[in-house]
Amino acid sequence: MTPQAGEVKSGLLWKQEHLSPLPIPTGQPASDVLGMIWRKNAVYLDVGSISLAGGWVVCYLGTLIWGSSILYMLVHKIYLGAILFAIGALAMMGFLWKGYIKAYRRPLMPPLRFHRQRREVRIVTPEGEEWTVPWERVHAIAPSATMIGQFGATRMGGLLLWFPYKDQIDEPFHMNKEGWAIMVSPGPGIAAMRQWECIRSFMEIGPEAVPEPAHVRDKSLRDIFVEEFHKARQHHGLLLTLLWDVGIGQALFNPMVYHWLHKKKFAVIPDLASPESIAWSQAIPPEQWAKRSPELEKAIAEREKELEFAATSKLSSEAG
User: Fold this and answer.
1) Which regions span the lipid bilayer (predicted)?
2) Count of structural domains within the chain
3) Domain contains 237
């Protein structure tokens, strides 16, 4: 039996939440956690699967921690410890930086294109194969797992988007069935739901319900810094903004260098170039727009009632 949205499977240290089909509201706001939105207009939404932020934080912060430890030992003349730490840093951080640089230099794959008027998704593989999948046949799954180590338990998770191959669109889905998929790691549970909600909201509500693309190819680094500074100042005040965003945050994560790398990477975003994809991407007259299936209409109505009831109950409990 094909899993449906709302179904949850779990084991001892793992959990698997099905978000679609049918693509009903998650109850979470649309938030582009990983910067997956590459291009957005009134007709279609382009989504990419590469995210540079998480890898940058891990590599840069790890290098900073290892480097600080080595510097501390050198200052206190613990030379043997410094040498051992340097060897460990080269082995671990060298491996991580190599992987990050390799991913950064890899050419961007063609985006997934979600056409809200046709209610279809256009898939173009790096090899050039192309096909479309009905929107209500897209499977969104939020798997998560608990990793137990010497420092305790850590919950990890992501968002899996699965699409049937072009000659298997009408075949039933099961977890071992082959298909075309992308996996991203915004985080478990709510974070994955918010990332999925970006796509779902575009298709079911409209482009106004979705954040703008995260790329910054039309902004200078100075504009980015000033914009983020003013946003932080409005939310946190001047003193905390100077302390964190200008001081500690810059030292720990170096967001300015990350923004430079991001801007350079996304200076040219790939487009769908084949005549078939270009024709498919065009707007169509409103009278020809595809409609929701009766099953989805019913499922969305039931889900909205559930969310409204939950919100009302929460307000009542807070008031009481």
Assistant:
1) 43-66, 78-97
2) 1
3) yes
